[in-house]
Design brief:
This protein is mainly alpha-helical. It has nine helices and four strands.
Length: 174
């Protein structure tokens, strides 16, 4: 669902960069640079969507260190060094920093899921937002049995969410 939205955004940026840019400027030189930049950056939208969903999911299942690692890798660890390396090849090469970074981190996320470092059997209480990410990530429908709503005073560890769900998946409490 969200990946399809990112794909649609990619297509809009790829097919119609000039109309999007003319909202901000009419200068030919900037339009020329911007058209190329938007097309290249739009390649990164789908892998960025995967990364955002996975890092949100990791936060939802209390794997904060892995989530933070992936976020830092995405925003600083790869982006800055790749931009620096690619600047030697010129401005057009620098724009490739964005899709390269997103593709590497998305591939890492998919690899972690494949080697079971990201799994669906962690014990967690989900907030409504984390539950949406969990559903999107691929377990909704086939594994969610039911939700249990708790009153605020019964939440674990003094948390202050007004609503939590205990997700029962694959016959086990997550």
């Amino acid at each position: 669902h969200k990946i399809l939205m990112m794909l649609a955004a990619s297509l809009v940026f790829w097919l119609f960069p000039r109309p999007l840019l003319t909202i901000f400027t009419e200068k030919k030189e900037l339009l020329q640079i911007g058209e190329y930049a938007l097309r290249i950056i739009s390649i990164s939208f789908v892998p960025a969507g995967i990364t955002i969903v996975v890092t949100s999911y990791l936060q939802g299942i209390a794997k904060m260190k892995l989530s933070v690692f992936m976020i830092i890798l995405r925003q600083v660890g790869l982006l800055v060094p790749l931009a620096w390396l690619l600047h030697f090849a010129g401005l057009k090469a620098v724009w490739w920093t964005f899709p390269l970074t997103e593709l590497i981190v998305a591939a890492l996320a998919l690899f972690l899921k494949e080697v079971k470092l990201i799994n669906e059997s962690s014990v967690i209480f989900y907030s409504a937002a984390a539950l949406q990410v969990f559903c999107f990530y691929g377990s909704c429908g086939r594994s969610i049995k039911h939700f249990v709503q708790y009153k605020e005073e019964s939440l674990p560890r003094g948390e202050s969410y007004a609503f939590h769900c205990l997700v029962i998946a694959k016959g086990k409490a997550l």
